[in-house]
Amino acid sequence: MIPLSRPALFVIAVSIALETAANQAVPAESEITARDEKTQHQEHPDQAHQHEEHGHADEVEKIVVQATRSGRIADEQPIRVEIINREEITEKATMRPGNISMLVAETGGVRVQTTSPALGSANIRLQGMFGRYTQLLADGLPLFGNQAASIGLLQIPPTDLGRVEIIKGSASSLYGGSALGGVINLVSRRPGDEFLSETLINLTTRDGQDLTSYVESPLSDSLKASLTAGAHHQKSEDTDNDNWIDLAGYERYTVRPRLFWEGEQGESLYLTAGFMTEDRRGGTTEAGVVADNSAFQHAQDSERADTGLVFSQPFGDIYTFSTRASAMVQQHDHRYGNTREDDKHESYLLESSVSGYTEKSDWVVGVAYQSDIFASDTFPVFDYTYEVPGLFAQLDYEMTQEITTSYSVRVDEHNEYGTQFSPRVSVLYRPGDLTVRGSYGQGFHAPTPFVEEIEAAGLARLEPLESLEEERAETASLDFTYTFGDIETSFTLFGSNVDNATELEAFSSTQSGTPDRVRLINVEGESRIRGSEVLLRYYWQDVKLTASYLYLDATQSAPTTTGREKIALTPEHSAGFVAMWEQHGNFRAGFEAYYTGTQRLNNNPYLDKSKPYWHLGLMGEVTTGRVSWFINLENLLDVKQSNEHPLLLPERAPSGQWTTDMWSRNDGFIANAGVRVKFGQ
């Protein structure tokens, strides 16, 4: 049974109330239309209210991308932007309705890396770069923080997403130091001209339940609104009976209203606010102990509140003034065994820009102020306040009908790390059916205590940060895309060099010589990532086949030799295959197979190198009228890392962690099934 506590009842009550209130909505059909050239330049990307969610996602050829600021359609962007459309989001929402981890994980070049085996938290690695370099945005706003915690990825439901935009490689020229490795922009669904609501109920074989609801409605001719709310529950599960919780238990509630206003003169205003509360539990079971014969509970209680706005005002036929602002406050109550850590994260953004166009160019210039604050009640020595005013500019210039270039630059004045210069240059070449894109960029990242290992261990054994330098990187890519008939092909070469990467170093604080603490240092030498991606997609009647392959050669300076070693938890080979058979409005059936190759393991007493593994899944959905029934079977081979070696360490790591790093999955086979009900159009 789904636990219908007050927040869960609130989700249902709000849906019914908004449905009743919207009976006077004006009927109209929402369609996706291509912009003509003049409208494309006049309208700021935040005014691009696309309607993928109303059932025509496969027909979309002209999507105005928000993440690059220029307001150009995706096909004409010199910067490569990968789009996950509403159709794919709907598919993944039936597989994992509680969060977006599966949605982004099955995109080429993207890896969701578990950072805390006890809590299941994870971050997003783009083309082999660390997850802390990835900026996660919502409608272009950092509503999850300028440097979002890994657990945040598991607290974002996909219910209200219209599409997802992914930029791989340094995007510091667009968004500052939080986007050293790239950007993932979650674009919300835009309300149509009549009432629509959708409720999803999901149950799993691991005693998990999800209830999500989405409502949209016009409030007047110029004002529209949407509301998303969710209640999610998971019972703690010990899948391998070793008295350590492999599937963290949680109870989470979310709510997010949005308002969209468009004036008669082309001006627009977008307002949003969100609230999330979650209690998450992991560690030993009631009967379990770790190697020192003590129980070890790993838990985290979270509360997050955020708000944001985007305003756009055209002046004449050429110029547009835009401003955006956001604020986020997140409080955590951590428990690591007998240690309790209470802290608060805050982030703020204020940005204004002016954009315009000529016959052959689009340009944007602006100013920005970002603030990132961390305050710990338990360990105030790690408190920091980063204040970063900056200037940015972008110019897209059509040199010929076949060649378009993009130049962007940003100068940030960081209060701790000084002046930072972040340029990026991109070129688009389209001779006929072939599309070639090349990009080169530089960027920076301001170090914080929250590297991946701290997610699992906490701050108790970390030395105060001293004499750290900013992490800097340069990235480059060359992309070829060719479409012939029903076959789409894409081939990408990419590389990155990272200087001053930070990592934890173990040391002994006593005369025993046994490491019992860690400190954060800048790694000597350069981390290098070289790789390639291949994507093939074939359409045959109602069937879509997709195959992908990723090669990564990721190395860093070896600490004990003059040579180089593989970067840990970075598979050299990975591949995927998806077959989807779908008739819109009737049914869909799909099969997925994903391969992950060997990885170097760090500080793992059982293995130096992981074993390759496959992840297989099946899904099906049948729609009758307004009701859709779905079932999903995940991890058909019942892959568990604990089948290869124990998850628990024989002794506690110097950082305080009691488990090995996660290089595979540990939830085993799991099935989920549920129903989606739509009301309105």
Structural features, described:
- This protein has a single domain (6-284, 312-680), classed as Beta Barrel (Maltoporin, Chain A), CATH 2.40.170.
- The protein has a 22-stranded antiparallel beta barrel. A 4-stranded mixed β-sheet has the order 1-5-6-4.
- With 681 residues, it is mainly β.
- Strand 7 and strand 8 form a beta hairpin.
- Mean pLDDT is 88; it is low at 1-61.
- It is globular, with a radius of gyration of 24 Å.
- The chain has helices at residues 6-21, 37-42, 86-95, 101-105, 172-175, 452-457, and strands spanning 82-84, 110-114, 122-126, 134-138, 161-168, 182-188, 196-204, 208-218, 223-234, 249-262, 268-283, 297-315, 319-336, 339-357, 361-376, 384-398, 403-414, 418-429, 434-445, 471-484, 487-499, 502-507, 517-522, 526-540, 543-557, 564-566, 573-583, 587-596, 613-624, 627-634, 670-680.
**Percent strand:** over 45%
Q: Please report the first level of CATH classification, the CATH class.
A: Mainly Beta
Low-confidence stretches: 1-61
Provide the CATH superfamily: TonB-dependent receptor, beta-barrel domain
Shape: globular
User: What percent of residues adopt helix (DSSP H or I)?
Assistant: under 10%
Number of strands: 31
What is the CATH third-level topology name?
Answer: Maltoporin, Chain A
How many independent structural domains?
Answer: 1
Cα-based radius of gyration, to the nearest Å: 24 Å
Structural class assignment: mainly beta
Q: What is the averaged pLDDT score?
A: 88
Largest sheet: 22 strands, antiparallel, barrel
SS field, number of helical segments: 6
CATH architecture: Beta Barrel
N- to C-terminal separation?
30 Å
